[in-house]
């Protein structure tokens, strides 16, 4: 584990949802229909934001959930409570997805606890705004790539021996991959890598019956931006430039992750869905 770049402490990332006001909306909007009945899902960054909303929706649809998160223990326990309230099992595992050894240990624990892994959601990510490329430190550059894209490689490598035909991998990319983000150069670059990774991994695994897709959210109200991932002045108008005119909520994104994980999307692989408030990105 000594090769892992230390987490950056220049801000409060990833941030506690319990301290965020107004609270993001994670609640599923409709009754479950058993679309993930009997499945086991690993969700990284599941303690808050989009990850929590996906965990809640997957649990409502019948899946047991492994909640991987960095260090927000109170948020992770709340997500576990939500999953259990839906009548499903929850397992919380704290650690850094940028650490290959952690990913291997976490996946092994999930497999031994639940005896199977059907869905891997690579959602964990970090971002640090910089107005000038020369302000991006080497540590920040390496750290952002380590979390956002290396972590996905490590998680897939660890989970691959457990994934059988019918399994699904869903990666979280971003609208910044398509539209660019002048103050998020390193972050948007990782999101471009994630999209390419998704398409290439799909080609690599589809022959074994494993589908790989991605979701590219627009501006979504989660702890990522308010706790250091965006400049304070931008938060005042966060999401207002979308055609819908407001930021999205996590429970408006989670259904895209559900669709790509269940049999409703059985003829889709290598694709990206765009819950982004109406922005046309042609990707």
Automatic annotation (TrEMBL):
Ordered alphabetically, the record's keywords are: Oxidoreductase
Q: Where is this region: Disordered?
A: 1-31
- What's the protein called, per UniProt? SDR family oxidoreductase
Q: Where is the composition biased (Basic and acidic residues)?
A: 8-26
Which InterPro entries does the entry link to?
NAD(P)-bd_dom_sf, Sc_DH/Rdtase_CS, SDR_fam
Q: Which family, according to the similarity comment? A: Belongs to the short-chain dehydrogenases/reductases (SDR) family.
Please give one Pfam family short name. Answer: adh_short_C2
Q: Which domain of life is it from?
A: Bacteria
Q: Which SUPFAM superfamilies match?
A: NAD(P)-binding Rossmann-fold domains (SSF51735)
Query: What PROSITE patterns does its record include?
Result: ADH_SHORT
Per the UniProt entry, the signal peptide is none
């Amino acid at each position: 584990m000594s090769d892992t770049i230390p987490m950056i402490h220049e801000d409060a990332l990833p941030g506690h949802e319990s301290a965020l006001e107004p609270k993001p909306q994670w609640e599923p909007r409709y009754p479950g229909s058993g679309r993930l009945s009997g499945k086991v899902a690993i969700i990284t960054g599941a303690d808050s934001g989009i990850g929590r909303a996906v965990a809640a929706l997957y649990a409502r649809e019948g899946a047991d959930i492994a909640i991987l998160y960095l260090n927000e223990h109170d948020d992770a326990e709340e997500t576990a409570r939500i999953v259990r309230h839906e009548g499903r099992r929850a397992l919380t595992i704290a650690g850094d997805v940028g650490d290959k050894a952690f990913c291997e240990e976490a996946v092994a624990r999930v497999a031994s606890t639940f005896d199977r892994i059907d869905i891997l959601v690579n959602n964990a990510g970090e971002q640090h705004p910089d107005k000038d490329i020369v302000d991006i430190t080497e540590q920040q550059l390496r750290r952002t790539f380590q979390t956002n894209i290396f972590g996905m490689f490590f998680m897939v490598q660890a989970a691959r021996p457990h994934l059988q035909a019918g399994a699904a991998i869903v990666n979280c990319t971003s609208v910044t991959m398509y539209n660019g983000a002048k103050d998020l150069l390193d972050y948007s670059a990782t999101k471009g890598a994630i999209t390419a990774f998704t398409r290439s991994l799909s080609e690599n695994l589809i022959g074994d019956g494993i589908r790989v897709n991605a979701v590219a959210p627009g501006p979504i109200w989660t702890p990522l931006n308010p706790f250091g991932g965006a400049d304070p002045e931008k938060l005042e108008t966060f999401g207002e430039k979308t055609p819908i005119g407001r930021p999205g909520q996590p429970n408006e994104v989670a259904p895209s992750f559900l669709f790509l994980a269940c049999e409703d999307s059985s003829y889709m692989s290598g694709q990206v869905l765009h819950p982004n408030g109406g922005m046309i990105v042609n990707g």
